[in-house]
Predict the structure.
Amino acid sequence: MSTEYVRKHVAGRGIPVTGNDIDTDRIIPARFLKEVTFESMGEHAFEDAKKANPEHPFNQPVYKGASVLVVGQNFGCGSSREHAPQALMRWGIRAIVGGSYGEIFFGNCTMLGIPCLTISQADLEWLQKAVERSPKETVDVDVEKQQVRFGDKVIQARIPDGPRNQLVQGTWDSTAVLLEAGGAIEATAKKLPYVSGF
Amino acid sequence: MARTLLDKVWEAHTVRTLPSGQTQLLIGLHLIHEVTTPQAFQMLKDSKLKVRMPERTFATLDHIIPTTDQTRPYADPLAEEMAVHMIRNAKDFGVPLFDMATGRQGIVHVIGPELGLSQPGMTIACGDSHTSTHGAVGAIAFGIGTTQVRDVLATQCLAMAKPKLRQVRVDGALAQGVYAKDVILFIINQLGVKGGVGYAYEYAGSVIERMTMEERLTVCNMSIEGGARCGYVNPDQTTIDYMRGRPYVPQGAAFDNAAKWWRSMATETGAAFDDVAKLDGNAIEPVVTWGINPGMSVGVSQTIPSPDAQPEAERPTFREALAHMDFKAGQPIKGAKIDVAFVGSCTNGRLSDLRAAAEVAKKGKVAKHVRALIVPGSQQVEKAAEAEGLHEIFKAAGFEWRKAGCSMCLGMNPDQLVGREMSASSSNRNFIGRQGSPTGRTLLMSPAMVAAAAITGAVADVREILR
């Protein structure tokens, strides 16, 4: 696997999006899903939320160029639309740090090589405020060591072993890995009564 | 050691353990639709890959199709383009497509079980979060993103970690006017919208066991709303009776063998769970959501809760919800004025849902200020409802009788809220902007409660109307 896929470590300026249960409809409303490519998604990240709230972080020039999103609990819940992580990625997000994630969103991010790390509620509140205070400072996301560093502070983070290994090994773009199983795929299918016709 | 359905299905579909430690899991049924697949097919074309098992892949059109005039080309050029891509990709890659001409088109989570494509003991994937629906027949079914759709198309497999398992037991008896929708909304309220993250839900207990298959489909459908990527009910006699005679289910001796295998996949007595949650079915009344996620709900006789009564971390979301909905803490939900009523979706667009709504529609006329839509979940549901005359009941009461599709559940077709409209909806999500208007508002409830709200013009207690 080429080293360009390895995501041991991601660092960049932070952007905090506060609040819990921010669903994927909020990240990208359904009307922008009527596209046969993902190319234009970045323009529409948080579109309605931005319109409703001029103070929304995605409206603020100070966060332009940020690449580490700092979120609350259950971020990306709801719809499976990959358009949501695609929109964030195309806006510039390379890693997410937060309290917890909608599971399908988490999986979609991993498939795009975007690590989503989990930190405690106290730490995420601290980090969101710290990033607000020092938006030019780098948030250092160490996927391998499961740590988030900001200034002098080292925050313990978690990412489940499977996705961590995929990101650290550079095997998150999984088609090639799955294809390696070769004939074992058909062999597994043949053993299933509903495939063989009972 | 006694094993669960999850254990058995997972083991039977394991191809190998991947270097990452995840399982390479074979997907027995891959359902696809027009919105989350064009990019996946393009990736396949770019890599010169084929669909690995086109015979285990089935396509439909549901999210973007209009429910009034369905003649092609569609009035919305973007919707037309998505349809064109789905039709072309199905043809190019040899995937069967249930389009309008087949008489089998419909919402992917309605037609899967209806056609007998979704069967007990299977793994099922689809680029849609409500794939959890299919767990009702005793399958492990989950939603995936588009890049994962590419993986399933190309390899018939996914890289997955086995989830933990929580048994959600609902015992007791449901009161009149309380439906499967109320049960799942109650479960989500009690266990939380993120309570199921990392878990599969096994629904059990006397309330679930007594449910018909269509009721179980409603419950499993909203597993994802509780954070659980999949939820299932163990196969039993109800399952076997439901499967018999469906187009893609084997017949004769093969059916008997199938039924035997299906039963053998059920969780065994004494099996251990990572967690068990017990809920009292007797305590459930018709449920209505008042907020901006499906866990923010109350019984119809109750009042909207105060943010101050919530844990501190939850308070901002509660305040945001009250502001968006224009509700006040302490206000009764009953009597909240509505503008739109919607019966349909993969949650509640099946024949039994339309029957329940029609029972209520018989009792009155849609309030003058309310726009009311009935959208069957599939062409077959539409046909069966018309054979019973349900469409006449709805039309006589002032409801619009539409064609099958996802419709106002997510407003990707012309069926959308306008401005601040308040919708009483039998769908699954009350997220901000969900029903097509960025400022629109959604109250989730059962189809009977939607019909009750439609004829009352405001949130009403269906038990008082049915009495």
